[in-house]
Each structure stands twice: as structure tokens, then as C-alpha cells.
């Protein structure tokens, strides 16, 4: 059995005065890759399913912000990413709904090298759970892919979807 070697690092930058964007990531179970993982299990030449859930979750929090302050969290791939697939980040629908603006939040976002609006909200965000999946990858390339994600936060709502 082989394991998908995936490295996700999150970097956080903030432009809000006295605010705090926090992140914590964990791997629930390593995403194992073997013949049973293929679209047609145990069939030579088959591809990996798309999207492939990476079994990685992360919590994003915005603290020390007035309940009236609107903000937007942007996500982008860092230049050091070596993956050939497309990385997707999704916010869980069970995340704290009080401060998230559903009309300006991308619940599933393809992360690119350009900062894209991800979560729009107002006030404190307490542990919104995000997860990761990958599309468009194949073996053996997937075994050595690395992704680094930069999250930034800015004052003001995200653009309307």
C-alpha cells in the first residue's frame, strides 16, 4: 500500500488592525493510494477518482475583531507548490454560520497561484472547518506532490459571487 505524500502548509497574513487569523491543521487518516483507490479498482491503466479526498482538515479562526467589522479570507497557492493536480479547499456547512456571509463565500474553491476570495464574514469566526481534495492527478506523480497555501485576510466583504 502506498500513501499519498502531500504537504500542505498554511501561511497567514492580515491587514486588519489588531485582528488575529489563526489556523490549525490535522490529518485524520493518511489518504492511502493503492489498486483499490483507482476509478475501476484493480484495473491497470485506470486513473484516480476525481476529486480525491485528502482526509486533511484545518480550522480557521478570526479573533479580536469587532462584531461590526466585515472581512474576507483569500486563499492562494504559494510559488513553492510542486503539484500537477488541482487542489480544492471546502468549508464545512456545519461551520459557524452566524458570522459567515453565504452569498459571498465560495464553499468549494479551486486554489490557484492568484489570491481568490474564499470566506466572507463579519466579526469573530470560531473554528470554521475546511478540508482539502485534489483533482487531475495520477500515479506516480501524486506520491510526491507538495502544496503550500497562503491565507490572507482583508477588511471588507468578499466580492459577490
Produce a short descriptive summary.
The chain contains no helices and 11 strands. It has 161 residues and is mainly beta.
Topology readout:
Layout: E1 2-3, E2 8-14, E3 20-27, E4 32-33, E5 52-63, E6 70-77, E7 86-91, E8 108-111, E9 116-122, E10 125-135, E11 147-155
Parallel strand pairs: 2-11
Antiparallel strand pairs: 1-4, 3-5, 5-10, 6-9, 6-11, 7-8, 7-10
Provide key terms for this protein.
five-stranded antiparallel sheet, elongated, mainly beta, 161 residues, disordered N terminus, single chain, four-stranded mixed sheet, 0% helix
Report on this model:
Mean pLDDT is about 75; it is low at about 1-10 and about 15-20. Helices cover about 0% and strands about 45% of the residues. The strands form 3 sheets. A 5-stranded antiparallel β-sheet has the order 3-5-10-7-8, with no helix packed on it. The radius of gyration is 17 Å and the shape is elongated. By secondary structure, the protein is mainly beta. The termini are far apart. The chain has no helices and 11 strands.
Amino acid at each position: 500500500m502506498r500513501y499519498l505524500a502531500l504537504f500542505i502548509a498554511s501561511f497567514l497574513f492580515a491587514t486588519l488592525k489588531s485582528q488575529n487569523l489563526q489556523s490549525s491543521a490535522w490529518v485524520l487518516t493518511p489518504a492511502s493510494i493503492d489498486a483499490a483507490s483507482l476509478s475501476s479498482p484493480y484495473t491497470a491503466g485506470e486513473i484516480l477518482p476525481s476529486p480525491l479526498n485528502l482526509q486533511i482538515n484545518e480550522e480557521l479562526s478570526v479573533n479580536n475583531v469587532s462584531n461590526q467589522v466585515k472581512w474576507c479570507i483569500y486563499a492562494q497557492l504559494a510559488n513553492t507548490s510542486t503539484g500537477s493536480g488541482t487542489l480544492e479547499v471546502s468549508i464545512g456547512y456545519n461551520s459557524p454560520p452566524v458570522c459567515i456571509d453565504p452569498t459571498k463565500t465560495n464553499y468549494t474553491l479551486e486554489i490557484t497561484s492568484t489570491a481568490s476570495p474564499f470566506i466572507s464574514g463579519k466579526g469573530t469566526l470560531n473554528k470554521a472547518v475546511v478540508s482539502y481534495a485534489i483533482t487531475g492527478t495520477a500515479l506516480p506523480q501524486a506520491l510526491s506532490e507538495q502544496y503550500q497555501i497562503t491565507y490572507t485576510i482583508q477588511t471588507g466583504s468578499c466580492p459577490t459571487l
